[in-house]
Design goal:
This protein has 429 residues and is of the alpha/beta class. It has two domains: 126 residues, Aspartate Aminotransferase, domain 1 (Alpha-Beta Complex); 267 residues, 3-Layer(aba) Sandwich (Aspartate Aminotransferase, domain 2). The protein is built from 15 helices and 15 strands. The strands form four sheets. Strands 4-10-9-8-7-5-6 form a seven-stranded mixed β-sheet, sandwiched between helices. Helix 4 runs parallel beside helix 12 and helix 5 packs parallel to helix 6. The two termini are 35 Å apart.
Length: 429
């Protein structure tokens, strides 16, 4: 696509956008700036306007029915999570039996590790990406220690080569091959939170299995962002949150994927709870945990209805728009943001601005991470004050997510205009 740095070009692209009407279906924050640009969907997605009515419905049902709302409300609460399964399975490329929404992300990953990280004295190592999200690193460290291993020995991090920002796929494959005899698990973030790098999950899964290991992924920055086909790829397990690209409200419940090859294996160790117990006999309150087939068998507790009602409002919009359509726009919009950052770098060579996100659209989601070395936080703070809401990560990275649901080409143009003004004024120096 041939980009142009003009308002006319940006507005023409927005006018031709088949998804343009979705922007009006989200609530934009008002922070007292004339031209607000929200590029923070990688941290917290915007609120769909239908959320308020969805939550109020459940509040009204609670007031009307009390405990009987579990069975007599418009959307009976005892099975409410089942309403979320079809659209969520479509988003992650899974069979409905392989997906369930429950708990929070790191809680779910620990539950997955109970079943899928089964180290022995000789096969106990975990391969992961360096500079993964801290919660994942803490997960790996504490899981290794829980099983009696030294994290420095058990965890093998694959890092970018000296002078590079991205991890080369061949280096990951080489690490898997070199440690095949001791490898228990390959665990990566599907999209790296810091750089926006999209890892080749089917290839990593294939390599893990060839080495006799399990393949699992944290999809916090991938679900609702990039196309996924977890079932077809043969991924063993995955987990994700729902408040970033899935727009389900702050801290809302996440989701898990367990491949059907494992979902019928009742010999797998797992922690039990009554909501994962066979639902035919669940309310008989008998001893003896009998997990349901599929991902539902990893549930623990009954579900938080108010949070799930907010999630349902968002997932309904995903089902309407479709991931292929969102991805098509995402690639164009992210490309325009990359083009705009490159123009800024060329116009202000002394600013030392650069992009550390992969240049190939197929190797990234809707994220551009901009290195502003030497300016650190000051330039970011000035961006926020000027109405561009992004995210700062130490020591000098500004992360921006042009989300196809609610961001526009004009947003990207406005960002470029704001940044040119700030750089011309010497912001951050």
């Amino acid at each position: 696509m041939q980009y142009e740095s003009t308002l006319e070009f940006a507005r023409a692209q927005d006018e031709a956008d088949p998804l343009k009407s979705y922007r009006e279906r989200f609530c934009f924050p008002s922070l007292g700036t004339p031209e607000l640009v929200y590029f923070t969907g990688h941290s917290l997605g915007l609120q769909p306007k239908t959320v308020r009515a969805a939550v109020e419905l459940e509040l009204d049902e609670w007031a009307k029915y009390g405990v009987e709302g579990h069975f007599h409300s418009t959307n009976p609460w005892y099975s409410y999570h089942e309403l979320l399964t079809p659209p969520m399975a479509g988003i992650v490329g899974a069979k409905e039996s392989e997906v369930v929404c429950m708990n929070s992300l790191t809680t779910n990953l620990h539950l997955m590790f109970v079943s899928f990280y089964r180290p022995t004295k000789t096969r106990y190592k975990i391969i992961s990406e360096a500079k993964m999200f801290p919660s994942d690193r803490y997960l790996l460290e504490t899981q290794a220690r829980f099983h009696g291993f030294d994290p420095d020995d058990a965890i093998i991090e694959v890092a970018p080569r000296d002078g590079e920002s991205l991890i080369r796929e061949e280096d990951v494959l080489e690490a898997i091959d070199a440690n095949a005899g001791e490898l228990a698990l390959v665990f990566f973030g599907g999209v790296n939170y810091f750089t926006g790098q999209l890892f080749n999950m089917p290839r990593l899964t294939e390599a893990a299995h060839a080495a006799g290991a399990i393949a699992g992924f944290d999809l916090a920055h991938a679900a609702g962002n990039v196309p996924l086909a977890l079932h077809d790829w043969g991924v063993d397990f995955a987990a994700w949150c729902s408040y970033k690209y899935l727009n389900s409200s702050p801290g809302n419940v996440g989701g898990i994927f367990v491949h059907e090859n494992h979902g019928r294996n009742f010999e797998l160790p797992r922690f039990g709870g009554w909501w994962g117990h066979d639902k035919v006999t669940r309310f008989q309150m008998k001893s003896g945990f009998q997990p349901m087939e599929g991902a539902e068998g990893w549930q623990l507790s009954n579900v938080p209805i108010l949070g799930m009602s907010a999630m349902k409002a968002s997932l309904d919009i995903f089902a309407e728009a479709s991931m292929p359509a969102l991805r098509k726009k995402s690639e164009k919009l992210t490309g325009y943001l990359e083009y705009t950052v490159d123009l800024l770098a060329a116009a202000f060579p002394d600013a030392d601005i650069s992009v550390i996100t992969p240049r190939e659209p197929g190797q990234r989601g809707c994220q551009i991470s901009m290195d502003v070395a030497g300016r650190e936080r000051k330039l970011f703070d000035d961006m926020i004050a000027a109405g561009v809401i992004a995210d700062f990560r130490e020591p000098c990275i500004i992360r921006m997510a042009p989300v196809p649901f609610y961001n526009s080409f004009e947003d990207v143009f406005t960002f470029g205009k704001v940044m040119r003004n700030l750089l011309a004024q010497g912001s951050g120096k």
